[in-house]
Design brief:
The chain is α/β, with parallel strands linked by helices. It has one domain: HUPs (Rossmann fold, 3-Layer(aba) Sandwich), CATH 3.40.50. The chain is built from 5 helices and 5 strands. The chain has helices at 17-31, 53-66, 79-89, 109-116, 128-135, and strands spanning 6-10, 35-42, 70-76, 92-98, 122-126. Strands 3-2-1-4-5 form a 5-stranded parallel β-sheet, sandwiched between helices. α1 (17-31) links the parallel β1 and β2 (35-42). α3 crosses α4 (109-116). GO terms for molecular function: phosphorelay sensor kinase activity. Residues 5-99 form the UspA domain.
Amino acid sequence: MKKSKDIMVCVTQQKSCERLINRGAKVRNKVNGKLHVIHVVKEGWKYFGKLKESDALEYLFDISKSYEADLTVIKAPDIEETLIDFADKNNIQIVVMGESLEKSAQQNMIERFKKKLNRNIMLEIVPLEEVNERAV
C-alpha cells in the first residue's frame, strides 16, 4: 500500500483560487492524501483586498469544503515562513501554487518560498494560461 502524501494549496484572494484547489484535489486523489487549503496575508493588509471580507471568506470556505479540503486563513508578518511552518506541522509533501507574474526572484512568491524551504517538498505550479482558460 502506498503511503499517503498530504497536499497544501496556497491561495490568494482571487476567484481563480478554485482552479488551484481543483488541481490540489486531483493530486490528492492520485496520492491518497489530505488536502489543505491555506491563505496567508501579511500583517497590516486586508485578508481579501478589495473583495468584501465576509463574502470572500465564505466563498473560499465553500470552495474548500466542496473539494473536501481543510481551510486555514492566517495573518502573519512573513508569508513564506508561515507557509513553511504550516507545511512542517502538517507533514506536507506536495505544495500547489499558481504561477507568478513577477519576473524578479525577490518579488516572485514561488522563488522566495523555494529559497526558504528546508526540506524536500514537491512543488506543483499551475500555469497562468491554465488558470485563465478555466476562469472564462
